[in-house]
Automatic annotation (TrEMBL), chains A, B:
Name of the protein in question: Molybdopterin molybdenumtransferase
GO biological process: Mo-molybdopterin cofactor biosynthetic process
Lineage: Bacteria, Pseudomonadati, Bacteroidota, Flavobacteriia, Flavobacteriales
Domain of life according to the entry: Bacteria
Entry similarity comment: Belongs to the MoeA family.
Length: 405, 405
């Protein structure tokens, strides 16, 4: 049997990323999305010489002439138009965030002042020009790029959008995704299964994994009937950008998915990957001839819960990240905490518990009961990716990591 | 001036966590929430002896008698009631996920079979009892606790909820939070500020930081007027569990928040922390006398964007985590990439860029322009917490980390 290696599978998937275009959203709803425009400074930051300590604004010249007691002319509040120091031997009380009054160039904080009878008195030998003043344009100049295109938006970017008045921002559009389970053995979560049935769970796990990427996926269930599968999948291929399947891709009598996809002209790019779990994974695409419509992408994951779970992290996540313009390389790594042996000539996705130790991320294997044991995932934080060219993995070695918490 | 240390501030905040109770939500909407019930197995897992490879089910006894060619009696599909192998010298084709037919105890996969004219022939010397069969109850027994109370829910838990039929789950209720900005200098994001004005940004940053915790906060803005502040804050104290302020807690003429909170019987637990940025941080609570209502908690952060941002991560996050029953200790750490000098006797929250190297998390300082420079956060991934008892920090040293991406 001709198995695709994990590396080959990854390359094929990344070479088939799809651009879903751009949309505009309210800035406050853009966290977790990918920015598709440069954000520039609408004015200098700070936009004026800004007082950065509460105190008095004076003219340095007056201080240098020996004046230490300053008559208070008024108060320069934040949010008020700029005042003018009329007599440069006087002072104006000035608040954090306020404009520096005209004719002043030094701010002395309240902690160093005594205020009495309308005079502020200081006991200092020297002051520095523009002390306690955040000078206009010091942080950024008007038209500087503050956030480049293709940045993943976090709370930090939200603050900048607000500051420069971007109430709407351009972001990568999300693909339309449907997650499809198949199998006569599956009943709904709210139902009580007969002895030979189980409840649907993989579609909901996938829904959650996609929600982590801000994708709201639809779901469907189709019974193991070739005609029904063909009709429904044809309509999904028409309506959605991405189809995720769980199950029916192996050697069983009712594993119709590869055949049905073939009948519907979905090109198989690979089937069966040199990995455990998730070997029967099938991946393909359907090129759409109409203009302005992009290719349809099909990830058909094996039906075992852990296979579906890890395949989504390992393949769908980077494919999606590349599609929307993010860096798609997984750079996460962890240190194996104990020796581990895995004989088959397959890449092994080992379930691990993570722990920080002296700035290092330590991965401890969690004994599992195979790819059917979803409850085992509850005790794990991540998968450590052990390569197929070795069977003996040693304590202290570093391997790529796929986290899900 | 009597400054509270970062450690003291943290202890006080954690000692004042609040239990917001429990609510029930649809399981599919529970990701990121904290589970408030034990999830138990509603039956054994697997619930029956489950075929784990597509192939034929036979009786081991027949194989041991020397039979290698088995007449096919039928097909045991997943999702079908259990069949019986009528003649134990025969076989039944059995699919992954199906019940093991009665009278069979071995499954041989298709890869090792030749099927012709209604017979399946194998060329093997031995088989193992229950090979390719995932035995009933092997993973978990009925009534086993699968997920304990107080687990933070991820996609892995969603799959288990579905499997055991928990269409609704009990989770920690979220606090009702309002985020309040003050200051006459602030205008709305969609407005064009006058020269002396700036746009509101801190409230939106805080909204995003709280969304990371699945909290949907309300927002408000109040001008620097003591009467208005008192009236509005009184009503917020009545309506909300938590009030977050940004600004008006320092020494300025219009920094009315501490005074107003005092007038409204909000007990000050500390004001001013030995840290940069964020020194003027004020924290307090209002005990509510009515039964069945919990205390009101007030975090009054300084108005500088970076001060607000880091204080939310450092103080609100662990307070909230402890309140809902999560482990609140920050265990994240990183390795300083270069020597760093910080003279003042304050805990310094250093903005850093993170990078993985051989399983280690390396933190590189990002030169900033002070706590007013929000755009600087865009270039950073986290804050490294440098303690106040030192000024010279050395390359390779490990410090606590507050991440925000």
């Amino acid at each position: 049997m001709n198995l695709t290696t994990v590396k080959e599978a990854t390359t094929i998937i990344l070479n088939n990323s799809v651009n879903f275009g751009i949309e505009e959203v309210d800035f406050i709803n853009s966290v977790g999305r990918v920015l598709k425009e440069d954000i520039v400074a609408d004015r200098d930051f700070p936009p004026f010489n800004r007082v950065s300590m509460d105190g008095i604004a004076i003219a340095e010249e007056a201080f240098n002439k020996g004046i230490r007691s300053f008559k208070i002319e008024g108060i320069q509040a934040a949010g008020s138009p700029q005042l003018t120091l009329k007599n440069t031997n006087n002072c104006i009380e000035a608040m954090t965030g306020a404009m520096l009054p005209i004719n002043s160039d030094v701010v002395i904080q309240y902690e160093l002042l005594e205020i009495k009878d309308g005079f502020a008195t200081v006991n200092l030998d020297t002051v520095k020009s523009f002390q306690n003043i955040h000078k206009k344009g010091l942080d950024r100049k008007q038209n500087d790029v503050l956030i480049p295109k293709n940045t993943l938006i976090s709370a930090a970017e939200i603050g900048v959008f607000a500051t420069v008045g971007k109430s709407k921002v351009k972001v990568a559009k999300q693909p339309k995704v449907i997650i499809v389970s198949t199998g006569n053995e599956l009943v709904e979560v709210s139902e009580t299964p007969a002895e030979y049935q189980i409840r649907r769970s993989n579609v909901y796990t996938l829904v959650s994994l996609l929600e982590n990427l801000q994708i709201k996926a639809d779901t469907a269930h189709i019974l193991d009937d070739k005609k029904t599968l063909e009709t429904k999948i044809a309509s999904f291929l028409n309506e959605y950008d991405v189809l995720l399947f769980s199950g029916a891709v192996s050697k069983g009598k009712f594993d119709f998915i590869p055949e049905v996809l073939d009948n519907l002209d979905v090109e198989k790019l690979f089937h069966k990957v040199k990995q455990r779990p998730g070997k029967p994974f099938w991946f393909g695409k359907k090129t759409v001839v109409e203009r302005s419509r992009s290719a349809k992408t099909v990830f058909a994951f094996p039906g075992n819960p852990v296979s579906t779970f890890v395949s989504c992290l390992k393949y769908f996540y980077p494919w999606y990240n590349k599609s929307i313009g993010l860096n798609f390389e997984n750079k996460q790594e962890a240190v194996l905490s104990e020796d581990f042996y895995f004989k088959p000539n397959l890449t092994y996705f080992l379930q691990v518990k993570l722990q920080q130790e002296n700035g290092k991320l330590i991965a401890t294997p969690i004994a599992g009961k195979g790819s059917g044991d979803l409850t085992n995932l509850v005790d794990s934080d991540a998968f450590l990716e052990l390569p197929d060219d070795n069977s003996n993995f040693t304590k202290g070695q570093v391997f790529p990591l796929l986290t899900f918490r």
